[in-house]
Specification:
Elements (H helix, E strand, L loop, with lengths): L4 H23 L17 H15 L1 H12 L3 H9 L5 H13 L4 H11 L4 H7 L7 H16 L21
Length: 172
């Protein structure tokens, strides 16, 4: 069987697509991350997504930083400072800035209060600021994370119960 240049290029392209698909599957969030059955209590939902956000933010640092700056109104210098010299994990930065935006405060306000208050976990910390399961702010937090995951090109099963807002712009 004689291989032509065109056949070789097509075979190489197909092989690359298969490798990229396998790599993409490995990047998918944990099966449990963000999985909430309809009608299930959402307490612990934030904690269930922390490890996955940490992996994504570590591996894809620049898109992660851009996301927090653009969609959660955090100053880039603060996000970089928290990650680089503050020893913060990406999920801590994400949730601090997302929650700050929901409660109408600067990210620095939440960041300054987090270290001593986080011992009870993210869910308790968020609830202390009024972002608790069942509240409109908690629903917006879930929707915001689902939107972030869509922009990151990653599946998040929470979308089954938190659909994209109608008419929302796709910012890919």
């Amino acid at each position: 069987m004689k291989l032509t240049l065109q056949t070789a290029v097509a075979a190489t392209a197909l092989a690359m697509l298969l490798v990229m698909g396998a790599a993409r599957a490995q990047q998918a969030p944990d099966a449990a991350a963000g999985t909430v059955a309809e009608g299930e209590d959402t307490a612990g939902w934030i904690a269930a997504t922390v490890a996955d956000i940490d992996r994504y933010g570590t591996r894809y640092r620049q898109p992660f930083v851009d996301e927090v700056v653009r969609y959660h109104g955090a100053p880039r210098a603060l996000v970089v400072e928290l990650l680089d010299t503050g020893g913060w994990a990406p999920a801590d930065v994400y949730y601090a800035c997302a929650i700050a935006q929901l409660v109408g405060r600067p990210c620095r306000f939440v960041a300054d209060r987090l270290p001593g208050a986080k011992a009870g976990g993210w869910d308790a910390f968020a609830a202390g600021l009024g972002v608790e399961p069942g509240s409109a702010q908690f629903d917006r937090l879930q929707q915001g994370l689902a939107d972030s995951y869509r922009r990151w090109g990653r599946p998040l099963r929470i979308e089954e119960i938190v659909p994209a807002e109608e008419g929302a712009a796709q910012d890919d």
